Amino acid sequence: MFFSHWMPTSQTWTETVKAKLGATVTLPCQLEDSIIGHRVLWYKADDEDADFEELAGSMGLHEWTSKSFNNRVYIQKISDNDASLVITDVSKDDIGRYRCEIINGEEETLHDYELMVESDIPEGVVFPYSPHGGRYSLNFERAEKACADQGAVVASFEQLFQQWEDGFDWCNAGWLNDGTVQYPINKPREPCGGSQNGPGLRNYGKRNKKTSRYDVFCYVSKQNGHFYWLVQPERLSFDEAVQACLDDGAEIAKVGHMYAAWRLEGYDRCDAGWLADGSVRYPIANPRKNCSPTEAAVRFVGFPDKKKKSYGVYCFRPEQ
């Protein structure tokens, strides 16, 4: 029988546990002494305001689990003092509060957990940007416009920090939306803040938004549309590339479209193509010989002469 339950606490502590989507997670629940002869109950509450509902339990050889978990949970009992809960194939529905209650007569021992489920798929991507005018040419207002022109916004410190934790390394300083100028370093070296300093975000602090000139870090989330390489029999000039996408019922893709497709969808193509800002780039999600052999990246070819017919084109078709 499964029911809502509230319990007073006698010995209790709370811990946050993080698990990856689809992984297996263990919520520890142990005593210093044996739990043989004790009653063990596990409870779950979906959020802070909800009541705890019985999830699993054991008493001697008798064990039970909630049918709502479809046989994905069990009490592992790898030793006489262990009553840890194992959840397999973790899903977003598993997010919530968990409580282990071990009862021995009138004494209770409680372990509380907050389970957070993380996806390996990020919600967005930070990318560095400098326009055709060259490096360190943007004041803050122009930086905002540069990101907007590429279907993005100026990144926040939190967004840049999260991507730095994922390995982002870039040696050019750029604006963030709080008016500071920073850059992420994972591989310390002399030209990038010195080889003696550890990895981290190098911070120039707040700069004059009107007179200071830097690059910018933009942020783009998943796009509502289709990013693709347009197959063409011949290479195109920039104007021809723009028209080719229009003729295909789409628009020439922006830099933000390419980064979103590369980072969030794993888009991979080893063909350099025009983008809306007049740059030529190509996205590599699977590094290989002659195609960004050392790392997954959006490769930047440059801002070539727009009349030059040496490249293909990437298009973007918004969802209707």
UniProtKB/TrEMBL annotation:
It holds the Pfam family V-set. This is Hyaluronan and proteoglycan link protein 1a. Residues 8-111 form the Ig-like domain. Disulfide bonds join C171-C192, C270-C291. Gene3D superfamilies: Immunoglobulins (2.60.40.10), Mannose-Binding Protein A, subunit A (3.10.100.10). InterPro entries: C-type_lectin-like/link_sf, CTDL_fold, Hyaluronan_bind_Proteoglycan, Ig-like_dom, Ig-like_dom_sf, Ig-like_fold, Ig_sub, Ig_V-set. GO terms for molecular function: hyaluronic acid binding. GO terms for cellular component: extracellular space; perineuronal net; synapse. Belongs to the HAPLN family.
